[in-house]
Amino acid sequence: MAKAIRMEQTGGPEVMQWVDVDVGAPGAGEVRIKQAAVGLNYIDVYFRTGHYPMPLPAGLGMEGAGVVTEVGTGVTRLKAGDRVAYVGRPPGAYAEERVLPADGLVKLPDAIGFDDAASAMLQGLTAQYLLRRTFRVEPGQTILIHAAAGGVGLFVCQWAKALGATVIGTVGSDEKAELVKTFGCDYPIVYTRENFTERVKEITNGAGVPVVYDSIGKDTYKGSLDCLAPLGYFVSFGSASGPLPPIEASEFASRGSLFFTRPTLFSYMAKREWLDQMAAELFDVIASGKVKTNVRQRYALKDVAEAHRALEGRKTTGSTVLIP
Q: pTM above the 0.85 mark?
Protein backbone atom coordinates (compact mmCIF):
# COMPACT_ATOMS: atom_id res chain seq x y z
CA MET A 1 0.00 0.00 0.00
CA ALA A 2 1.11 3.54 -0.72
CA LYS A 3 0.51 6.54 1.52
CA ALA A 4 -1.46 9.66 0.65
CA ILE A 5 -3.21 12.63 2.21
CA ARG A 6 -7.01 12.37 2.29
CA MET A 7 -9.73 14.50 3.88
CA GLU A 8 -13.24 13.50 4.88
CA GLN A 9 -14.46 17.05 5.44
CA THR A 10 -13.41 20.61 4.71
CA GLY A 11 -11.84 22.79 7.37
CA GLY A 12 -8.46 23.68 8.86
CA PRO A 13 -5.14 21.94 8.27
CA GLU A 14 -6.10 19.25 10.79
CA VAL A 15 -8.63 17.69 8.34
CA MET A 16 -5.75 16.32 6.23
CA GLN A 17 -4.99 12.72 7.19
CA TRP A 18 -1.98 10.54 6.24
CA VAL A 19 -3.52 7.20 5.24
CA ASP A 20 -2.92 4.00 3.26
CA VAL A 21 -4.37 3.97 -0.27
CA ASP A 22 -4.72 1.31 -2.95
CA VAL A 23 -3.29 2.97 -6.06
CA GLY A 24 -4.14 0.21 -8.54
CA ALA A 25 -2.92 -0.44 -12.06
CA PRO A 26 -3.26 2.14 -14.83
CA GLY A 27 -6.18 1.74 -17.21
CA ALA A 28 -6.35 2.58 -20.89
CA GLY A 29 -4.61 5.87 -21.60
CA GLU A 30 -3.23 6.09 -18.06
CA VAL A 31 0.14 5.75 -16.35
CA ARG A 32 1.20 5.07 -12.79
CA ILE A 33 3.93 7.28 -11.37
CA LYS A 34 6.09 7.21 -8.25
CA GLN A 35 6.34 10.78 -7.09
CA ALA A 36 9.61 12.43 -6.10
CA ALA A 37 8.23 15.87 -5.22
CA VAL A 38 4.84 17.58 -4.90
CA GLY A 39 4.10 21.30 -5.19
CA LEU A 40 2.27 23.34 -2.54
CA ASN A 41 -0.03 26.10 -3.78
CA TYR A 42 -2.68 28.41 -2.38
CA ILE A 43 -5.33 26.70 -4.49
CA ASP A 44 -4.81 23.68 -2.20
CA VAL A 45 -6.05 25.84 0.69
CA TYR A 46 -9.13 26.85 -1.32
CA PHE A 47 -10.03 23.18 -1.83
CA ARG A 48 -9.23 22.23 1.77
CA THR A 49 -11.46 24.96 3.21
CA GLY A 50 -14.31 24.39 0.77
CA HIS A 51 -13.87 27.76 -0.96
CA TYR A 52 -13.58 25.64 -4.10
CA PRO A 53 -16.13 22.84 -3.58
CA MET A 54 -15.40 19.23 -4.55
CA PRO A 55 -16.87 15.83 -3.72
CA LEU A 56 -15.65 14.29 -0.46
CA PRO A 57 -13.72 12.31 0.63
CA ALA A 58 -10.92 13.66 -1.53
CA GLY A 59 -7.23 14.16 -1.99
CA LEU A 60 -5.42 17.47 -2.33
CA GLY A 61 -2.59 18.84 -4.43
CA MET A 62 -2.44 19.97 -8.03
CA GLU A 63 1.10 19.30 -9.23
CA GLY A 64 3.90 16.82 -8.91
CA ALA A 65 6.90 15.23 -10.55
CA GLY A 66 8.29 11.74 -10.58
CA VAL A 67 8.99 8.62 -12.61
CA VAL A 68 6.61 6.51 -14.68
CA THR A 69 6.48 2.98 -13.24
CA GLU A 70 3.74 1.43 -15.41
CA VAL A 71 1.75 2.37 -18.50
CA GLY A 72 -1.75 1.34 -19.50
CA THR A 73 -2.96 0.18 -22.88
CA GLY A 74 -2.86 2.72 -25.68
CA VAL A 75 -0.10 4.83 -24.14
CA THR A 76 2.65 5.28 -26.73
CA ARG A 77 4.46 8.51 -25.94
CA LEU A 78 5.48 7.52 -22.41
CA LYS A 79 7.22 4.44 -21.00
CA ALA A 80 8.37 3.11 -17.65
CA GLY A 81 11.38 5.07 -16.44
CA ASP A 82 10.40 8.39 -18.04
CA ARG A 83 10.79 11.48 -15.86
CA VAL A 84 7.54 13.45 -15.94
CA ALA A 85 5.65 16.34 -14.33
CA TYR A 86 2.04 17.49 -14.34
CA VAL A 87 -0.45 20.02 -13.07
CA GLY A 88 -4.20 19.69 -13.12
CA ARG A 89 -7.40 18.38 -11.66
CA PRO A 90 -8.67 16.36 -9.95
CA PRO A 91 -6.67 17.17 -6.83
CA GLY A 92 -4.67 14.26 -5.43
CA ALA A 93 -0.98 15.07 -5.82
CA TYR A 94 -0.40 14.71 -2.06
CA ALA A 95 0.52 11.04 -2.52
CA GLU A 96 3.52 8.75 -2.79
CA GLU A 97 2.14 7.18 -5.97
CA ARG A 98 -0.84 7.84 -8.22
CA VAL A 99 -2.46 6.93 -11.53
CA LEU A 100 -3.00 9.75 -14.03
CA PRO A 101 -4.11 10.26 -17.64
CA ALA A 102 -1.04 10.18 -19.84
CA ASP A 103 -2.24 13.19 -21.83
CA GLY A 104 -1.78 15.43 -18.79
CA LEU A 105 1.91 14.62 -18.31
CA VAL A 106 4.92 16.36 -19.83
CA LYS A 107 8.40 14.86 -20.10
CA LEU A 108 11.09 16.57 -18.09
CA PRO A 109 14.28 17.69 -19.82
CA ASP A 110 17.44 16.36 -18.17
CA ALA A 111 18.28 19.89 -16.99
CA ILE A 112 15.12 20.16 -14.85
CA GLY A 113 15.16 18.44 -11.44
CA PHE A 114 12.12 16.98 -9.70
CA ASP A 115 11.95 19.70 -7.03
CA ASP A 116 12.18 22.40 -9.67
CA ALA A 117 9.49 20.78 -11.78
CA ALA A 118 7.11 20.19 -8.88
CA SER A 119 7.45 23.81 -7.81
CA ALA A 120 7.17 25.22 -11.33
CA MET A 121 4.29 23.50 -13.07
CA LEU A 122 1.48 25.53 -11.50
CA GLN A 123 3.32 28.69 -10.54
CA GLY A 124 5.64 28.80 -13.54
CA LEU A 125 2.95 27.98 -16.09
CA THR A 126 0.75 30.60 -14.42
CA ALA A 127 3.50 33.16 -14.92
CA GLN A 128 3.83 32.03 -18.52
CA TYR A 129 0.21 32.63 -19.45
CA LEU A 130 0.00 35.87 -17.43
CA LEU A 131 3.02 37.42 -19.12
CA ARG A 132 2.87 35.88 -22.59
CA ARG A 133 -0.83 35.37 -23.29
CA THR A 134 -3.26 37.20 -20.96
CA PHE A 135 -1.33 40.46 -21.30
CA ARG A 136 1.76 40.13 -23.45
CA VAL A 137 4.45 42.12 -21.69
CA GLU A 138 6.81 44.02 -23.97
CA PRO A 139 10.19 45.69 -23.36
CA GLY A 140 9.91 49.12 -21.79
CA GLN A 141 6.56 48.54 -20.07
CA THR A 142 6.03 48.86 -16.31
CA ILE A 143 3.90 46.25 -14.57
CA LEU A 144 2.50 45.76 -11.06
CA ILE A 145 2.47 42.32 -9.43
CA HIS A 146 0.90 41.83 -6.00
CA ALA A 147 2.36 39.26 -3.58
CA ALA A 148 5.67 39.63 -5.38
CA ALA A 149 7.51 37.45 -2.85
CA GLY A 150 5.17 34.50 -3.34
CA GLY A 151 5.72 31.59 -5.69
CA VAL A 152 3.99 33.07 -8.74
CA GLY A 153 5.25 36.53 -7.84
CA LEU A 154 8.92 35.57 -7.98
CA PHE A 155 8.39 33.82 -11.32
CA VAL A 156 6.67 36.92 -12.69
CA CYS A 157 9.35 39.31 -11.37
CA GLN A 158 12.18 37.36 -12.98
CA TRP A 159 10.44 36.62 -16.25
CA ALA A 160 9.11 40.15 -16.72
CA LYS A 161 12.58 41.55 -16.03
CA ALA A 162 14.06 39.17 -18.61
CA LEU A 163 11.49 40.49 -21.09
CA GLY A 164 12.75 44.03 -20.54
CA ALA A 165 9.96 45.32 -18.29
CA THR A 166 10.17 47.46 -15.17
CA VAL A 167 8.63 45.59 -12.25
CA ILE A 168 6.73 47.05 -9.30
CA GLY A 169 5.76 44.53 -6.62
CA THR A 170 3.89 44.66 -3.33
CA VAL A 171 5.26 42.74 -0.34
CA GLY A 172 4.44 42.47 3.36
CA SER A 173 7.82 43.16 4.99
CA ASP A 174 11.25 44.69 4.53
CA GLU A 175 12.73 41.20 4.43
CA LYS A 176 10.50 40.30 1.50
CA ALA A 177 11.31 43.60 -0.17
CA GLU A 178 15.01 42.73 -0.10
CA LEU A 179 14.23 39.27 -1.45
CA VAL A 180 12.22 40.44 -4.46
CA LYS A 181 14.91 42.94 -5.41
CA THR A 182 17.25 40.02 -6.01
CA PHE A 183 14.63 38.46 -8.29
CA GLY A 184 14.15 41.41 -10.62
CA CYS A 185 11.65 43.63 -8.81
CA ASP A 186 12.74 47.22 -9.40
CA TYR A 187 10.34 48.85 -6.96
CA PRO A 188 9.20 46.79 -3.95
CA ILE A 189 6.32 48.40 -2.05
CA VAL A 190 5.83 47.35 1.57
CA TYR A 191 2.04 47.59 1.68
CA THR A 192 1.89 47.46 5.49
CA ARG A 193 3.27 51.01 5.68
CA GLU A 194 2.99 52.40 2.14
CA ASN A 195 -0.10 53.17 0.06
CA PHE A 196 0.66 51.10 -3.02
CA THR A 197 -1.64 53.14 -5.28
CA GLU A 198 0.07 56.42 -4.40
CA ARG A 199 3.48 54.81 -4.76
CA VAL A 200 2.67 53.40 -8.21
CA LYS A 201 1.50 56.83 -9.34
CA GLU A 202 4.74 58.32 -8.01
CA ILE A 203 6.92 55.72 -9.76
CA THR A 204 5.09 56.18 -13.09
CA ASN A 205 4.87 59.98 -12.85
CA GLY A 206 1.10 59.75 -12.64
CA ALA A 207 0.69 57.65 -15.78
CA GLY A 208 -0.22 54.35 -14.10
CA VAL A 209 0.63 50.89 -15.39
CA PRO A 210 -0.79 48.99 -18.36
CA VAL A 211 -1.42 45.84 -16.32
CA VAL A 212 -1.93 44.77 -12.71
CA TYR A 213 -1.56 41.08 -11.84
CA ASP A 214 -3.64 40.61 -8.68
CA SER A 215 -3.90 37.38 -6.69
CA ILE A 216 -4.94 39.09 -3.45
CA GLY A 217 -8.55 39.93 -4.29
CA LYS A 218 -10.81 41.88 -1.94
CA ASP A 219 -8.13 43.92 -0.14
CA THR A 220 -6.39 45.21 -3.26
CA TYR A 221 -9.24 45.43 -5.79
CA LYS A 222 -10.05 49.15 -5.76
CA GLY A 223 -6.44 50.18 -5.31
CA SER A 224 -5.39 48.03 -8.25
CA LEU A 225 -7.94 49.69 -10.53
CA ASP A 226 -6.61 53.09 -9.48
CA CYS A 227 -3.10 52.04 -10.51
CA LEU A 228 -4.08 51.38 -14.12
CA ALA A 229 -3.50 53.62 -17.09
CA PRO A 230 -6.41 54.09 -19.52
CA LEU A 231 -7.06 50.88 -21.48
CA GLY A 232 -5.16 48.98 -18.80
CA TYR A 233 -5.73 45.34 -17.84
CA PHE A 234 -6.87 44.24 -14.38
CA VAL A 235 -5.86 40.58 -14.26
CA SER A 236 -7.44 38.86 -11.24
CA PHE A 237 -5.92 35.40 -10.84
CA GLY A 238 -6.57 34.70 -7.15
CA SER A 239 -8.34 35.89 -4.00
CA ALA A 240 -6.07 35.27 -1.01
CA SER A 241 -7.78 38.02 1.03
CA GLY A 242 -11.29 37.00 -0.02
CA PRO A 243 -13.50 37.17 -3.13
CA LEU A 244 -13.80 40.36 -5.15
CA PRO A 245 -16.83 42.54 -4.51
CA PRO A 246 -19.55 42.60 -7.18
CA ILE A 247 -18.04 43.96 -10.37
CA GLU A 248 -19.49 47.30 -11.49
CA ALA A 249 -18.94 47.95 -15.19
CA SER A 250 -19.03 51.70 -14.57
CA GLU A 251 -15.83 51.47 -12.51
CA PHE A 252 -13.96 50.21 -15.56
CA ALA A 253 -15.50 52.84 -17.83
CA SER A 254 -14.83 55.80 -15.54
CA ARG A 255 -11.15 54.90 -15.14
CA GLY A 256 -10.47 54.92 -18.88
CA SER A 257 -12.10 51.90 -20.53
CA LEU A 258 -10.21 49.32 -18.51
CA PHE A 259 -10.22 45.59 -19.22
CA PHE A 260 -11.08 42.92 -16.64
CA THR A 261 -10.23 39.24 -16.88
CA ARG A 262 -10.32 36.32 -14.45
CA PRO A 263 -8.05 33.76 -16.11
CA THR A 264 -7.29 30.23 -14.94
CA LEU A 265 -4.35 28.06 -15.85
CA PHE A 266 -6.61 25.19 -16.80
CA SER A 267 -8.30 27.22 -19.55
CA TYR A 268 -4.95 28.16 -21.03
CA MET A 269 -3.67 24.56 -21.06
CA ALA A 270 -6.95 22.96 -22.18
CA LYS A 271 -5.48 21.82 -25.49
CA ARG A 272 -2.52 19.45 -25.59
CA GLU A 273 -0.60 21.66 -28.01
CA TRP A 274 -1.06 24.64 -25.69
CA LEU A 275 0.31 22.70 -22.72
CA ASP A 276 3.31 21.50 -24.75
CA GLN A 277 4.12 25.03 -25.93
CA MET A 278 3.74 26.53 -22.44
CA ALA A 279 5.85 23.84 -20.77
CA ALA A 280 8.56 24.09 -23.42
CA GLU A 281 8.82 27.86 -22.92
CA LEU A 282 8.87 27.46 -19.13
CA PHE A 283 11.55 24.77 -19.14
CA ASP A 284 13.61 26.86 -21.57
CA VAL A 285 13.70 29.97 -19.35
CA ILE A 286 14.53 27.83 -16.32
CA ALA A 287 17.28 25.89 -18.09
CA SER A 288 18.75 29.13 -19.48
CA GLY A 289 19.01 30.61 -15.99
CA LYS A 290 16.76 33.58 -16.79
CA VAL A 291 14.23 32.29 -14.26
CA LYS A 292 15.07 30.40 -11.07
CA THR A 293 12.48 28.21 -9.39
CA ASN A 294 13.53 29.31 -5.89
CA VAL A 295 12.37 26.43 -3.71
CA ARG A 296 12.71 28.01 -0.27
CA GLN A 297 10.75 25.54 1.90
CA ARG A 298 10.65 21.75 1.97
CA TYR A 299 8.36 19.63 4.14
CA ALA A 300 7.82 15.91 4.41
CA LEU A 301 4.48 15.18 2.74
CA LYS A 302 3.13 13.67 5.95
CA ASP A 303 3.76 17.06 7.63
CA VAL A 304 1.66 18.98 5.10
CA ALA A 305 -0.56 20.51 7.82
CA GLU A 306 2.47 22.44 9.06
CA ALA A 307 3.16 23.61 5.50
CA HIS A 308 -0.44 24.83 5.10
CA ARG A 309 -0.23 26.82 8.34
CA ALA A 310 2.94 28.52 7.15
CA LEU A 311 1.40 29.29 3.75
CA GLU A 312 -1.80 30.73 5.19
CA GLY A 313 0.17 32.72 7.74
CA ARG A 314 2.16 34.34 4.91
CA LYS A 315 5.34 32.94 6.45
CA THR A 316 6.58 31.42 3.20
CA THR A 317 8.45 32.99 0.32
CA GLY A 318 9.10 31.59 -3.12
CA SER A 319 8.05 28.00 -3.66
CA THR A 320 7.39 25.12 -1.27
CA VAL A 321 7.68 21.43 -2.11
CA LEU A 322 6.47 18.38 -0.25
CA ILE A 323 8.66 15.29 -0.29
CA PRO A 324 6.77 11.92 -0.23
A: yes
